[in-house]
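call fold(seq) -> tokens
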Amino acid sequence: MDTNKDKSLEEAKTPSEEEQKKEETEEATEGIEEEEPTETVKEEGAEEEKEEAAEEVSEEETPEEVAPTEAEEEEKAEEKKREEAPEEEIVEERIYTIPLSRAWIAPRKKRAPRAVRIVKSFVQKHMKIETKAKTEEEEEEAGRLVVSDEVNRKLWSRGIEKPPRNIRVRAVKNKEGIVTLYLAEGD
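ret:
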């Protein structure tokens, strides 16, 4: 029964404590309201100083001093890759539209891998890549097929179950006999 008395005493104390806290917060807010106008004047002055500093910095910086952003760096890297590719002597370049309808005959979970095999076999036939080499010397001379990342991404873009029905590729054969597949422009 002593515990009941203690609880009643605690309940009686809490409202008075809450009232005191409310009074303290009200007093604190009154003090803050008085100080706010002086702070806004300081903030306006600080903003003006920041704007002036920004203008000075922009006048001092020249385009050479500005660090390139990540997007600009990526664009430059892509341009370099494009410049390097034409440096290789291109013997033959063709654009093909490869039908991939036969890939859809396969079970759902094997369609995209089959589409990749169809693309490789199509290009080997049409670009006349020698697949069988009799001696070691001929292996080095025999052509290779390189499927670029963009073509692979296009084939796998909708997952393993739904490869595209057809794909347009640009096949480039260099003097070493290496055939590289790229997506045709506009795809």
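The helical segments are 2-60, 70-87, 111-126, 136-141, 149-156.
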